[in-house]
Predict the 3D structure of the following.
Amino acid sequence: MYRPTQPLRLRRALAALVGGLISLCLVSDAQAADARSRVLLNGVATPVVFNDGDSFRVLGGPLTGAKARLSGFNTLESHGPVHQWGTWTVREMYILAKLATHNARDNVWECSSDGKTDGYGRMLVFCPGLAKEQIRLGLAHAMSIDDKPADAELLAAQREAIAAKRGIWAHGVPDYILTSLHSSEEDVEGDGVYNRLVSSKDGHSIKWKHDVKYDECQNVCHVVYPVDEARVTAVADRLRREQAALVTGLDDAALKTVVRGFAVHRHVTTPATEAQQGPLAALLLAWAASGEFGAGQPRNESCMIHVDFKRRYGGARAVCLR
């Protein structure tokens, strides 16, 4: 008897859930009071509503109204079908994002916070049990907000989920997941904007800096390039000869790792230091434009649809989110 493979069974199950589950999730989001749950926040039972699988709003107690971002992991955006990689469709990945939200609402999690906030003013909260469970089920990925690896225990859970092809890993594993988009008009301080990329290998983040104004519903993709090892070696040798001061502290193996990573992704990250990353990226981008890395054609790896925050919810939602 023919038995579908696990990824095919998952795809069929997701397809069967599309209509009913999305309708249910949208109703729940619109009626937050019906979706309330509890967490033990610093030891105190606290009513909350999970907006998605990695954030919640406090509904009672001294922190009423506070918005919380959970640290150490990331779930897919749940405001609409916006993520895509591998052979997933955006609609299938939307269902996975909603499943992460419901999984977060389905238990009482122990959480803690020291009151620190992120760049959006949200209280940073760590819920280790929830983080590990979301990742183990393939409904989230481990992440840090800088170029340091994510938590080792969460990375171990992620490796397990990837090996089993669970959840978001069932139809491909991009080297970097595109987790957020920022269009150039958001730069009101003159500091520039960036999109965030998160490594599926060790959870470190890259700030993909750019000056592009995105259209509503524009599909933005992080691309990867084919690698010619001979050219990687040649570029590393040229850097050593011509830019010795810039690559100080990088032995030959580390320098090749940096160059190879740039050849694939057009970003400079570890083991280069933060001080080295910007100057090296500018130099290597110029060398790439002059053909130092060859003329191989890039392919899309991880994509995301851009919609301004003000157009993600309510009656004025962008057409691509409906």
